[in-house]
Here is the input.
Amino acid sequence: MLLNNSLENIQLLAKQAVEGFIIGLHKSPFHGFSVEFAEHRLYNVGDNLKHVDWKVFGRSDKLFIKKYEEETNLRCNMVLDISGSMQFPENPTHYTKIQFSAIAAAAIMQILKSQQDASGLTLFDDAITFRSPIKSNSVHYSNVNSELEKLLSYKSNQKSTNTAQIIHQIAENTHRRSLVVIFSDMMDRVGEGEDIFNALQHLRYNKHEVILFHVVDGKKELEFDFENRPYEFVDLETGATVKMNSLGAKDHYVKKMNAYRADLELRCGQFGIDVINADINLGFNQILMPYFVKRNKMM
Here is the structure.
């Protein structure tokens, strides 16, 4: 529930999402993601005493150093669609798709920071509006969080989307193998579906791992759950309107939407891209678990 944008803090919201997720698990998802103990070796003069296993010393009266497996750092590029359609639903008591995506991204970045992984942020509508480098220092994370926090009160002024072109740019400009996490409702220009699939394939061709979070309001955008009465529906990207009775359009709409989502999942599956149905009504666990699964596969 979104209370007051001016009072919300993106870091606090992200922390709540992460802590709530961890509490719901039987064991911590962080296990195995950072430096792990590997074995002991005898102490050598000059070794740092902080790595001495004092419990072993107490039992054996001998100095042993704890050896650790080398930490593997992840590079993650968070990509958020901030076009007009992402401002749905226009309801002050609920997260919009942009707000939901911003908090989910901040939650993942909080985890990345705790693991000393590097992350970057890209925001786009019909062009890239913000792009940060991929870094892991505290100042960088603070700057990125500031950009995400702006999205809690962001108004796009009916900006359209050019997803395919943006993804091609990201594929070209991300030079080292990375995890690319995309938050988008995938409501792009009509007739450009093939272009989007080609752009996603470009990311995989360049050896990047990809998670596509298909951000939707499940009740409204998937189930078309509206009262049985006339409505005026407004395109949030073009301003175009259409008047219709919701019940008369429901069956056709749901059929078309299900076919689109099935095609999206099939085509992305062929490329090895994970597509996650990110329903803004279902909370953040649906975001964090797929992220951990993908991260674990990469490690």
